Every structure is written in structure tokens, then in C-alpha cells.
Amino acid sequence: SPVFPATTWRAWPNDVSFLDRDAIHVVRLDLSITSSSDDACLTPDELTRANRYVVEPPRRRFRRCRAALRRCLGALTGTPPASLRFGAEKFGKPILVEPDPAGLVFNVSH
């Protein structure tokens, strides 16, 4: 199917049910905003990784970005964001391990 360019950007929603598994989505996220709900879906390992940042801005950006990724993938797989399990490809690119991604491809770029 054809790909149509986005003509408008919408603010990052609390509800990501609009995501369609059969479409290409580009999500733009303001990483300077802090949300108290971000940490709720992160794993202890992700929180530990975030806390390795010495200063707050990169720590906040990591948490915000990873939480958004979890919310998007959770909506697309019908899985609670905190239940998603990630692995890594040969060169370290994150991949979704659980639930079975069945053709779901994603990427994160800063």
C-alpha cells in the first residue's frame, strides 16, 4: 500500500490505540518532558541502565524514550508494556523477543 507523508503532528498521546500493526508509524517525542508514568512500565534493568547516566537530562531522555517504545509495541502486540521482553541482534540492535514479534519491525533514532 502507498505511504503518505504526515501532514500534521499530534502530541504524544496517553492512548496509543490508534497504532495499526499493518502501517508504518513515525513517532516524534519530546524527550525533555517528564512523565511520572514512564517509570511504571520500565524493567528494573532499564531503570538501572538509566541511573548510570550521571546527569539528569540523558537519564530522563532514556527513560522517556524506552517507555514510549514499550507503549507503542505494547499497543501493537496487545501486551502490557511492562511485560515486553527485549533481546539484541548480533550488533546490539534491540529486538522484541516476547511476545513473538511475528514480522513486527521497529527502530529508535535520536
Defining traits:
two-stranded antiparallel sheet; 110 residues; 2 helices; alpha+beta
Report on the architecture of this protein.
It is globular and about 40 Å long. Strand 1 (85-88) and strand 2 (94-98) form a beta hairpin. The protein has 110 residues and is α+β, with helices and mostly antiparallel strands. The longest helix is centred in the middle third of the chain and has 22 residues, at 56-77. The protein has a two-stranded antiparallel ribbon. The chain has helices at 44-51, 56-77; strands spanning 85-88, 94-98.
* N-to-C order of helices and strands: HHEE
Q: Helix amount, in percent?
A: 25-40%
Q: In whole angstroms, how far apart are the ends?
A: 27 Å
Query: How many strands, which pairing sense, and closed or not: the largest β-sheet?
Result: 2 strands, antiparallel
Based on secondary structure, the structural category is alpha+beta
